[in-house]
Write a structure and sequence with these properties.
seven-stranded mixed beta sheet, five-stranded parallel beta sheet, about 45% helix, elongated
């Protein structure tokens, strides 16, 4: 057989293979460790998003993919032992979720780490900048510094009479100070006074809400991070009892009573972690893969909360909403 005929024969044979088989052959078998700072039920959607993302890249359980999940159940002190368990299982990559990211990345450097992180990686020392990840780890950062300013613009569009807002945020959340600077700048631009309350634990949150009540703000803005989400019901119930609209970044806040949220669609961002896993399995190092930021966002409006608060959502906002809760 002449050389050209042989090449055409081989190419034709590969093309004739079923698509699923070709995808599986393109992907070597992968053993992935998954560590979440949450409990299993709270982390399920994110783990499923990772599975979906890997499936689109040709990885199928159990043929070419095994995922070992570990859950810290909100107990940070458990994470070192979870890391050790996965290292003993000889996983190829560890994928992290929520508060597990920093202790996993800093707790070991032998296994590559892929993360979805709500904070700013350079602020935490996880990267020199987004283009240059450090510590054998890379992934997706959910933090876009300017997003809180956009949420304040949204609140101003909904209720232009508001001139005083309170902000609660976790000072331990990497990049929070950058968010604060941008938010206060946007407040000055819109003529809105901003009171800032730093809360990194439940005791500080209690104190902040007590002081906040004395200042009588007209709305409450919650910067997005795991601590705020863990205390979402407590925060929102407090605000609703004082007829304060709440605006935040992640849809779970609107689903639990916040007036509206605008920010990344978390499951879509987490699905993107599969891209990094695939690239590393195929030979790239985390240092070669720049950290990405979200590209898919959603606006969620809770009309039930609006009615309770006596707030009329303008049609200009409703027409832009990706989801309306009634």
């Amino acid at each position: 057989m002449r050389r050209r005929e042989f090449i055409e024969f081989v190419c034709g044979a590969v093309t004739a293979l079923p698509i699923d088989l070709r995808a599986a052959q393109a992907s070597r078998s992968a053993h992935i460790g998954f560590i979440s700072g949450l409990d299993q039920s709270a982390a399920t959607d994110f783990l499923n998003a990772l599975r979906d993302g890997l499936a689109t890249l040709g990885y199928t359980e159990p043929a070419t993919l095994k995922i070992d999940g570990r859950f810290a159940d909100y107990k940070r002190e458990r994470i070192p032992s979870l890391i050790q368990e996965l290292e003993q299982q000889r996983v190829d990559i560890i994928v992290t979720h929520a508060a597990a990211t920093l202790p996993v990345v800093m707790g070991q450097h032998h296994v590559p780490v892929v993360y979805e992180l709500s904070a700013d990686p350079p602020s935490l020392g996880l990267a020199a900048d987004l283009a240059h990840p450090l510590h054998n780890a890379t992934g997706v950062s959910l933090m876009l510094i300017e997003m809180n300013g956009k949420r304040l613009e949204l609140l101003h569009e909904i209720a232009p009479q508001i001139t005083r807002v309170a902000v609660i945020a976790n000072p331990l959340h990497g990049g929070m100070q950058l968010e604060r600077i941008d938010f206060e700048s946007k407040g000055k631009e819109l003529g809105i006074a901003v009171s800032f309350f730093a809360t990194s634990n439940r005791a500080e949150l209690d104190q902040a809400l007590t002081r906040l009540a004395d200042e009588s703000p007209q709305a409450l803005v919650a910067f997005s991070d795991a601590f705020i989400v863990d205390n979402k019901n407590y925060i929102i119930n407090f605000a609703m009892s004082r007829r304060l609209p709440v605006i935040s970044g992640w849809a779970v806040m609107a689903e639990n009573g916040a007036l509206c949220t605008y920010g990344p669609r978390l499951a879509e961002s987490y699905r993107r972690t599969a891209y990094f896993v695939d690239r590393i399995l195929k030979g790239s190092t985390p240092a070669q893969l720049p950290i990405e930021r979200p590209t898919i966002f959603e606006l969620v409006v809770n009309l039930n909360s609006a009615r309770t608060l006596g707030v009329t959502i303008p049609s200009s906002v409703l027409v832009r909403a990706d989801r309306v809760i009634e």
